[in-house]
Design a protein that fits this description.
Layout lengths: L2 H18 L2 E12 L6 H12 L8 E7 L1 E4 L6 E4 L15 E4 L4 E10 L3
Parallel strand pairs: 1-2
Antiparallel strand pairs: 1-6, 3-4, 3-5
This protein binds zinc ion.
The site of zinc ion has 8 residues, from loops.
C-alpha cells in the first residue's frame, strides 16, 4: 500500500505548516490526487487516521478529491476529460494524446486550522 508513504510525507508538511501558523490543531485537510496515481481514497483515509494519531491533525476532517484525467490532442487540438485512461483521442482517435491533468498530482489543497489561544 503506497498510500502510507504518501500520507506520511504529506503529514510532515501539514505539521510544518501548522507549526508555522501556530495552530492549536488542524481542523480540516483537503487533499487532491490525479486519477492516474491510482491512489485509493479509502487507503488514504486509513493511513491518515493511523498517522495523525496523537499529532496536531488528530481528529481532523479529511476531504479527498480525485482529479480527472484530461488529455490534449495534438492532431485535433481538443482537450477532453476521460472517465478512464485510453491511449487515443476520444474526438478524432489520434494516438497518444498528451495527458495534461490527472497524472501525477498529489497535493494538499487546503488546511483549516484552529488558532492557539495565545
Ligand atoms: Zn484528437
Amino acid at each position: 500500500m503506497h498510500e502510507m508513504g504518501i500520507v506520511q510525507s504529506m503529514m510532515e508538511i501539514i505539521e510544518q505548516q501548522a507549526r508555522l501558523y501556530r495552530a492549536k490543531r488542524v481542523v480540516k485537510v483537503s487533499l487532491e490526487f490525479g486519477a492516474l496515481t491510482a491512489v485509493m481514497p479509502s487507503a488514504v483515509e486509513f493511513a491518515f487516521t493511523i498517522l495523525s494519531q496523537g499529532g496536531i491533525a488528530d481528529g481532523a476532517e479529511l476531504d479527498i478529491k480525485i482529479i480527472p484525467i484530461k488529455v490534449h490532442c495534438i492532431e485535433c487540438g481538443r482537450e477532453t476529460v476521460l472517465e478512464e485512461y485510453q491511449p487515443y483521442c476520444p474526438v478524432c482517435s489520434a494516438a497518444a494524446p498528451m495527458i495534461v491533468q490527472g497524472r501525477d498530482e498529489m497535493r494538499i489543497a487546503s488546511l483549516e486550522i484552529e488558532d492557539s489561544d495565545e
